[in-house]
Amino acid sequence: MKVLVPVKRVVDYNVKVRVKSDNTGVDIANVKMSMNPFDEIAVEEAVRLKEKGVATEVIAVSCGVQQCQETLRTAMAIGADRAILVQTDEELQPLAVAKLLKALVDKEQPGLVILGKQAIDDDCNQTGQMLAALADLPQATFASKVEVADGKAKVTREVDGGLETLEVSLPAVVTTDLRLNEPRYVTLPNIMKAKKKQLDTVKPEDLGVDVKPRLKTLKVTEPAKRGAGVKVPDVATLVQKLKTEAKVI
Ligand code: AMP
Question: Which ranges carry the Electron transfer flavoprotein alpha/beta-subunit N-terminal domain (predicted)?
Fold first, then answer.
């Protein structure tokens, strides 16, 4: 069984992004970029499935600019066998990515597609769901445990009230939550090995997909600044302030 793992190149989670002065977006020039953390978890899970003998091949896919190759090399250093870059300089929105992934699903016929539950840059939480709809595949989102056997995946999902366990027949789409696993550190020998692994590049046109944005960003602004806190002398004053100033009780 092949496992396809889409990985997105995003601003590193340690970077504090700044909004551009013209409010058109955030400034990502000269900012450290890394693999979306949920996608690292997805690669780790796919590699573990391969190590258990459940998966036969792990294919990492990234859609975007040429530098996404670095993200794909990281995926291969974790243990993905090969990678595909769908290269474009166009701004990619979740629907466009889902259409590109659907074309690759048709071509590669994976038994499982494991995506991150959301990308930490746009926080969309849409691509996996859209892919499942376009490819007409069952989906299990926000997975904290995945067990694959007999052409089925048993997926434990993190939902508001606790945990829900679903069974989906394969092929299927799964999206990862934080607690699914702890990704391994990539070692230098594996980084070196990853340099030699196969990385194919295709264009959206080769997959017959129009990736033009369908949504227009009107404005991006900084969150409102938080006011300074105050120290209160006792509980009575705190309760008083919560009642009269904050008006929350
Ligand atoms: P989103 O719907 O944008 O929050 O992204 C959810 C997941 O879709 C990510 O965690 C990735 O697994 C995948 N994804 C989104 N954008 C891309 C991209 N440009 N290339 C590869 N995978 C992507």
Answer: 23-211
